[in-house]
Design goal:
homodimer, about 450 residues, alpha+beta, 7-stranded antiparallel sheet, 5-stranded antiparallel sheet, 16 helices, 18 strands, globular
């Protein structure tokens, strides 16, 4: 609990309106898109880097935990006050400072919403690569802190690949700048990418230089339907193995198709066990040759049908169906969450088979959704937290799934992050020496362990 | 100087033949592609990670400096024993372990030569993005340690963008693995990219998982000639500003053209003050539309001529001329080195003008060579080390050039690294707080400061 004089000090730093301690405010900030709830002692909403610098000096002096937060859409419990402290809401830093068309980049504050940056960039025929499913709500600061991806990461990369520089307030209150507007920069250690994906544990990001790329001249969306999950998985491996890089390659299993069929009124083939939503982009010529080859591969792997969206509206409807999976699942069962197991793409058939086996064994409602082209699975688990037996089976399922993932050369997280959701699995992927190095790095940035403590380290 | 019993211990670890102390061997390892020479106390050539782990334990126990080295082609004095110690030559670890076509990656040991990896990948229609000018000699381990680029970095990125995972021996002798064969990985801090570009100061890289990409179906090379350097610079800004990404966009100034004209017998237009070597790649369709637009832009910016290579042989000859600049310059003056100032591409005309001014002011032989598309300049300085006055003017020139570079929002190094060459300029780009963080990270990995000490930190 915060001492009254310290609370007063924070309050005077940001002004009366921007330091919240009312029970209803604390309740609002006690959860994010993950499951666990922790009530903070206060919420602070500074106006700028100077206020953040000052409040970090106070927090360091008083050893008060600070939990930075954008939109709270992260899926791993990264923005909740697990060990008490103050939630630092960055949403007042929400300016798009510059769209620099000459240097193909944008300078933005952390609270800018992904979709707003996309809109601003689109006016110049540009876009920001990462397109997380939460793009209508999530912030660029959150995208950087979590190293967010999205369907088109397959072609355009995750946030780290689309990041040029940062301004960061350290726990000491010092402000540093990393990188800049140059595409290349190898001066000193790569702090930019170290901070990207650091899940709010190393510093407070106050400005971001994001790379922009040209909006492709044309796009084409397909829906390939298959009677077997393994045929889909093999199609994906074949497409990638023949060095075609679609803009997106999304796999959806029947259980999820059925959910969005009811939800969005979309028509999918009745006999499909799984569908592949494929988007390619580029020039007319390359779209044609890719279309041809992809269709060929799908039929070689026993596709039932390959349909292409004939209008942009039809294509958008297919994408809406993809994005509707989360909300639709939430209508089916009380507890819904998406895991993030990621394997080398050649192992896609194996991991999908493994998940099917585990589903049988543990009798759970799970549907595979996947950014299949980069081996990034998002199995959607649907359960009820009040059913202790089901929750135990769920726990067991996830443990076995991650063990299999790592055994296949995969990773615990392709794009959602670790947070508290998967902290306990870290030793599956990294040995003790590597984890010690990470702890050492954390200590360099945050000697008093006040920044988002109790996270993955 | 190494104690006899310690030398014996190292010798017994790797075998008689692989621990060198003969004066001629020490002389061979006393320099790299930078200027300064420092004689090591010994040279060790281990066979594998196990030997490296053992020798690092001894080095840590005895506090003996270890300087990892591949081909020694780095341009910033990164592989010399500045404070004494043992040079660790990694060339025996030279196996291409796997070309994984299903996952579009290669697993290689650090001593594999870049060109050899390119050759192995080409058999499967694949390539490794980075193509440093030294690619016939430099090693992949060196590429990772220095975060190497090359002309086609403009489209295909630098080494960090083409890196999936590492195996690293720490100074403690512990071995860690980072990343893997998955395209996406956000588990824990991004140690892979922290190690990339760390210039041999954090750990010994013993295995690399490198991303491979498809060799583009077609390529086209142009040579655009201009009567003014500023017209070239403006053309580059216009090309990038219109969101065209060529595979390479290389600028060469008259003083350098004259050198390679003599050297390679190539014919360049007589009235050209500068040329732009442009390579585009992709499908026929996109090549055609890019060709058209690029030619248009060049003429809008007053190009004298735009010629395209009509055969692959002609194109290769143009590229050979580009690569011959270094050797040709070395025939002109005794001391030749290439700087690495990098600016946002919109600032290219400004920095080129600044260099022209400094050339006048300091009366030096300097020719601008540039990976112009990403604002990465390599001014080639030609001088004589025995001319003290010239050397002083050179020093002054470089200082002023980097001050201007940073003032334009640029960086000290686009792809060559910092090493001892540019250590003293670090405070121009990073403030004290950022440098302290880097020093802290160094200490986490290397508490006794035995790994490549006296480098940029």
């Amino acid at each position: 609990v915060l001492k009254a004089e310290i609370a007063a000090e924070f309050r005077s730093l940001v002004g009366e309106d921007w330091f919240l301690t009312a029970p209803e405010d604390l309740a609002t900030y006690s959860y994010d898109a993950f499951i666990k709830e922790f009530q903070p002692d206060a919420v602070i909403l500074p106006a700028d880097r100077a206020e953040i610098s000052k409040m970090m000096r106070v927090a360091s002096r008083e050893k008060i935990n600070i939990i930075p937060r954008g939109a709270g859409t992260n899926l791993c419990g990264n923005t909740v006050a697990r060990q008490g402290g103050i939630v630092l809401d960055l949403n007042r830093l929400n300016k798009i400072i510059e769209i620099d068309t000459a240097n193909l980049c944008a300078v933005v504050q952390p609270g800018v919403i992904n979709a707003d940056l996309q809109k601003a960039a689109a006016q110049f025929g540009l876009m920001f690569g990462p397109d997380p499913a939460s793009m209508m709500a999530c912030t660029i600061g959150g995208n950087v802190a979590l190293n967010a991806g999205g369907p088109r990461a397959l072609k355009y990369g995750v946030t780290r690949d689309n990041l040029l520089g940062l301004e960061v307030v350290l726990t000491s209150g010092d402000i540093i700048r990393t990188g800049g507007k140059t595409i290349k920069n190898v001066t000193g250690y790569d702090l930019t990418r170290l901070l990207c994906g650091s899940e709010g544990t190393l510093g407070i990001i106050t400005e971001i230089i994001a790379k922009l790329v040209a909006v492709p001249p044309q796009r084409k969306t397909f829906l390939a339907s298959f009677a077997s999950l393994y045929d889909v998985a093999r199609s994906v491996s074949s497409i990638i193995g023949s060095a075609i890089i679609p803009a997106a390659l999304e796999l959806m299993e029947k259980v999820l198709i059925d959910l969005v069929k009811n939800y969005a009124g979309l028509i999918f083939p009745e006999d499909a066990e799984a569908v592949l939503l494929i988007e390619i982009d580029g020039d007319e010529d390359s779209i044609q040759s890719m279309s041809h080859r992809i269709t060929e591969i799908c039929f070689e792997e026993n596709a039932l049908r390959v349909d292409s969206a004939s209008t942009p509206k039809e294509a958008e409807r297919l994408w809406q169906a993809r994005r509707a999976v989360g909300p639709a699942a939430r209508m089916a069962r009380p507890l819904v969450f998406s895991e993030d197991a990621t394997v080398p793409v050649s192992k896609l058939p194996d991991i999908i088979q493994k998940i099917a086996e585990l589903r049988q064994k543990h009798r759970l409602m799970v549907g595979v959704l996947a950014h299949a082209g980069d081996g990034n699975l998002h199995p959607i688990f649907m359960a009820d937290m009040n059913d202790t037996d089901e929750m135990e089976r769920l726990e067991q399922f996830i443990q076995e799934m991650y063990e299999a993932t790592i055994a296949m050369g995969g990773t615990l997280s392709g794009e959602h992050g670790i947070g508290i959701a998967k902290a306990k699995y870290m030793p599956l992927e990294y040995n003790a020496a590597a984890i010690e190095i990470m702890r050492g790095i954390k200590k360099v940035f945050d000697p008093h362990n006040i920044l988002n403590p109790g996270s993955f380290l």
